[in-house]
Amino acid sequence: MFSSGGKGKNVQNKSQGNRELYSVLYLLAMQQIHVNTKGDARNPLLRAYFESKVSGGKTKIQALLCIMRRLVNIIYSMMKNQTAYRMPVLKEPEVTEKKSRRFHRK
Description:
Order of helices and strands: HHH
Radius of gyration: 20 Å
Helix content: 40-55%
Distance between the termini: 68 Å
Shape: globular
């Protein structure tokens, strides 16, 4: 990125990067975080990651770029290890039961 003297005008040179590869990864990331009409995500783990990034203050496109980067890492490791993709299982958060301290009226 190039900045303009702190004026907040950040521009990225269009000649940097492979635009075709970017568009393929963008579409793949959109498909992974897609939610159907029943409310089920295609990839619940990546959807949860996307939502955590958005709730953490990132914009949706920034969160999508994080998903794209994660997909690049997954694809690279699949090619390096010559393995097929296995859908990860989303762990349910553990619920700890705390004793409630309520005052009971007699």
